[in-house]
Design goal:
With 666 residues, the protein is an alpha/beta fold. It is built from 31 helices and seven strands. Helix 19 packs parallel to helix 21 and helix 21 runs parallel beside helix 23.
Amino acid sequence: MDQFDWSLLVQLSTNKQKESLFNSSTTLISNKDYKDDDVFHILHTIRVHFRFLLNLYKISVEKDKVLIENALVIIVKEYTDNTDWKKNIFQPFLEKNEHNLIGMFLEFFNQFHNDNRKEILAYLLNNTSIANIFEVLKYSTSTEIRKEVFKKLKTRQIGEEDFSHMFEIIDTLVLTLNENELEDYSEPLLDILENNQKSDHFKKIYKEIKYKKDLLKIFNQKVLQTKDKIKKLNKVENPFNDRKNFGSFKQSMQEEMERHRRFIVALLYFEEEPEKTYKILKAILNDSIQPIYALNLLIVRCKLLNKDDDNYLESYKDALLEWENLSIQFENNILDKSEYVILLEGYQIINNFDKFLYYWNTMPEYLKNDLDIVPIRCKFLQKQQMSATAIKYLEEVFIFHKEIDKSKKDELEKIKDDLVNEYEVAYKSKQILKINSSSIILTPEEAKVYWLKIKNMIDEHHAKIFPREEELSLEEFILENMRLISLELLERRENVKNKSKKLFIEDMINDWVTSLINQRMGFINWSARDQSRGGNSATDKSAGERDIIVSNQSKDDLFLIEAFRLFGCSRQTIKSHMDKLDGYNAKGCNVVVVLVYCKVKEFFTLCNNYKNYLVNQQYKGFDNTNLSNNIFDEIDSKKVNLKIFKEIRKKNNKEITLYHLLSDFE
């Protein structure tokens, strides 16, 4: 299911079809008369639909997400009853034999609108298994949600009756061992596992977990000195004795437990003697390459670096490269939060734009509001001179968490103050000292440094730097580039005259526009995508096609381009294209460019008729406007075969600028 592009299905659906698509499980839910033999078939069908909705959710526009959330709420409330196996789509038998549906759901649950999130959380805390309540903690970064979960856990006594499957016990136990806040729950869970280890497989798992827990307990004893902890660690009996049974020591559980003990010893040296930690970890990795050993090797190697060293950044790059090379050998490793924190911080420090964005974009959505990750991204955005984006991101984080620990809140407030001050300086201060640039001579290396700084500036700064004549706003910068591209298109019109098919010509011109944008703006990583499917069509009967979408270096959409040919002032043709705009603009771009390729004898007459028609039209999906005050400004194109009009429309009280560029292709 993950490999199919479900967005096509959504985009091909009318609103009525979407409602039917999102709520198809309600038929099964309302029918409670099925037999026991049919139960698992029904539950499986609902799970398939539930997973299908989650796939739709991650690629849908905002208005569709609300509908999908509502459908998910209905299913969760009807089919998350831990006391009735017939009404539980998250029961362990189904989870382990198919997919971890609860985990997938909880990832997206963090992004739900506040009312839906509260409703589902309250229901889960009262109706799902204790194992799934721990899963809520695992997948949540919200302070508010975690607070509610801990509050609920304090009222629950954990017993064997809370678990119906061994894997539930094991997964929950491992989670409690990995989070300090859950340490108190590990002992009763270990007792439950001990009492239920019926097969050799589970006996082996119990031995491994208990041994690691005993080591961890010694590691966390604050009253003991390092040398005393090491003595106690060495006395913990290894529960396995299988070294002689394997030709390779790497396959031996006895050897694996010994490596883990050495790993814990290595961590004890981390603060006072990090060189010892590094040496032990390197030796362990020579025997067995495991993600946890490699990650800690990266951490200690970075700790050993001297920030005052001239080669600090190069050494940091080498440390990250070593981890990358080791990670290639990991089998089926899914990065966890700690790995994302270390890697994002590392690539932020060395200012590797591409690597940072790679890990940011591949990181689960629920971690993007994690309070350990937020400061890292803010520092990264600040380095890219994207303070405005960082400020907006912080504001969203404050809204998401609602309640934040005072020390963490103070840290984030300070970051925000620094960003605001930097943003104000960048936009309000004027440089008084003028420098004669002709006297500046840069080496190629120096020029590269300056160029990378300029290239990574925000779009508004680019608009002030690159125009030849004067500083422009971002909107003016976009318009100027589209004006120049339109003029280049006009120079190619002879090629168009040799083609007869309308669709072929439109595709060919759009290819030119896409190519010209990429050529002209590729140096600052702006990119144009031709005929990307997205949004809704004017009629809601078929998928709309945004002729071109232009994005900046952060992959944020900058503006949309709707392009069409006009052979006369056909009001139906003009209206149909204007009615497409809102459906395409799902992400709410502030600028929309309409390119009209005109093929008429009376070009100026067509332009006037075009303007006079649209100035009196409401646009589908936009706020209704007082047409008597509507203005179509004409902007000087500096050419007789290109007309430019500007108008302002509103969507949800937000201004959207529309530029109409009419080119004479006759």
